[in-house]
Amino acid sequence: MSNTFAKDYVDVATRIREFKEAFPTGSLQRVDMQFVNIGGKDFVVYTAAAYRSPDDERPGMGTAWEPVPGLTPYTKNSEVMVAETSAWGRAIVAALAGETKRIASADEVRNRPANVVNISQPVNLELKELGDLLTSRFKTKDERSTFVMDTLQLLDPKSAKDLNDNEIGVLLRELRKTKVDK
């Protein structure tokens, strides 16, 4: 990792300390954990929430996934722990409103072999779920856009690719809540 690259990254332990300093009554909690097979490869997918307070209605959300078995000596037999820690770091970034330039932690970058990551084709399982829920709930693009703008209190429409992790989490929680309420 070059010095320029590394200076933008913060390890998860530091992010946790910053989070606890900013939100002393906050907590990190698991939202979901699944084992999935994508393209014939197994992954653990871990979603975490960073609650700023016990009554936080819109916690920072973060999802991370790791191949199973792990591909490096650091991740093999520790796949769930690595995914959990990475998801915590991402949830904290969302809760702190993106005070860091990068979402991936230094630990994630160090532990990932260079030939494994295809950054030209990122896969965001939460974004896929959001698209599926929006499409199933609303018949037209205008209805979907109105829901997103109203829920996020936006003045102008936003495309899915421009949503940050926290916004995706807010929309998913609202869609899941209304799904249960119906």
Describe the protein:
This protein starts with a helix and ends with a helix. The radius of gyration is 17 Å and the shape is globular. Helix 5 crosses helix 7 (165-181). The protein contains seven helices and three strands; from the N terminus they run ααβββααααα. The protein has helices spanning 3-7, 12-22, 79-95, 106-111, 125-137, 141-152, 165-181; strands spanning 27-38, 41-51, 60-68. It has two domains: 3-111; 125-181. The chain is α+β, with helices and mostly antiparallel strands. The chain has a three-stranded antiparallel β-sheet with strand order 1-2-3.
Helix-strand pattern: HHEEEHHHHH
Percentage of helical residues?
A: 40-55%
Report the sheet-strand fraction: 15-25%
Low-confidence segments: 1-6, 100-105, 114-123
Structural class: alpha+beta
Radius of gyration: 17 Å
| Total beta strands | 3
Based on the model shown, name its key terms.
7 helices; three-stranded antiparallel beta sheet; single chain; globular; alpha+beta; 182 residues; 2 domains
Task: Summarize the model shown.
The protein is α+β, with helices and mostly antiparallel strands.
Q: Mind sketching the topology for me?
A:
Elements: H1 3-7, H2 12-22, E1 27-38, E2 41-51, E3 60-68, H3 79-95, H4 106-111, H5 125-137, H6 141-152, H7 165-181
Antiparallel strand pairs: 1-2, 2-3
Helix pairs in contact: 2-3, 5-7
